[in-house]
Design a protein that fits this description.
The chain has helices at residues 23-32, 45-63, 76-79, 95-102, 129-133, 138-145, 161-165, 182-193, 209-213, 215-226; strands at residues 14-18, 37-42, 70-75, 85-88, 111-114, 119-122, 125-128, 152-154, 173-179, 198-204. The protein is of the alpha/beta class and 236 residues long. It has a single domain (5-226), classed as 3-Layer(aba) Sandwich (Rossmann fold). The chain is globular. Bound molecules: NADP nicotinamide-adenine-dinucleotide phosphate. NADP nicotinamide-adenine-dinucleotide phosphate binds next to helix 1 and helix 4.
Amino acid sequence: MFSYSSLLDLNRMKIGIVGGTGGMGEGFALRWCVNHDIFIGSRDATRANEAATQYMNSAREAYGSNLTGSISGEENVRLSEFCDLVILSIPYESTESTCSAISERISPNCIIVTPIVPMRREDKGFTYLPLEEGVKSAAELVSDYIRPRERIVSAFHTIAEVKLKDVKQNLAVDTFVCGDDQNNVSTINSLISEIKGLRPIYLGPLSMSYQAEILTPMLLNASKRNKIKHPGLMVT
Ligand SMILES: NC(=O)c1ccc[n+]([C@@H]2O[C@H](COP(=O)([O-])OP(=O)(O)OC[C@H]3O[C@@H](n4cnc5c(N)ncnc54)[C@H](OP(=O)(O)O)[C@@H]3O)[C@@H](O)[C@H]2O)c1
């Protein structure tokens, strides 16, 4: 079985965020830069650098002398070549184009994380596309392009961007994790546990990712219909 985690120094990783200029990307960067080196990815290097500078300023302000990591900008394709771990923080619609662009360039030891949710807003509410249209879960779609599938871990689907970006907030929620390789899952679990108040809950292999992904449109409907701001989930 493939396992990359044994090669990693978990205390100081190179974490690449494809689509890191978006809201979730900012949150991941601000949460993990305390200890790790973060590479904000974009299709456009200038946009990546501008976002990285802005996030780094926020991080210095938030952490002061406790900040030991860094945040810099890089093109999506380039960061896949040298990072220990890459998060696909991109819209579902761009999964295929982005994965095919990076697939040949990903370093052999890199773990890939997908928080992608295939959903759509309709009149009745937010819906999960694999149920509505019979398409694959995001994790399965990613695995069509990123090989071997053991390097893929799925997580973070039910974490609200607004709360993730607010580094002073204790999230006090769980996130469900799916993956085929236990060592890679453990690496992600350890990164998840570095975020204040976030607990990883393992669901099973990557093929179970739909069970985590579908919770996002469900939460958004609950939020909208009941006026609950930035809801999250916790298993008790
Ligand atoms: N937002 C949330 O609260 C939340 C919660 C849980 C899970 N998620 C999931 O996390 C992922 C990221 O969410 P997000 O809200 O941060 O996404 P986003 O802001 O909509 O997009 C993130 C980045 O993706 C890049 N991008 C946009 N269109 C693209 C395209 N056609 N091709 C390639 N790259 C494109 C853009 O970066 P550049 O233009 O710089 O390349 C953009 O800044 C999504 O799959 C979402 O379902 C989001």
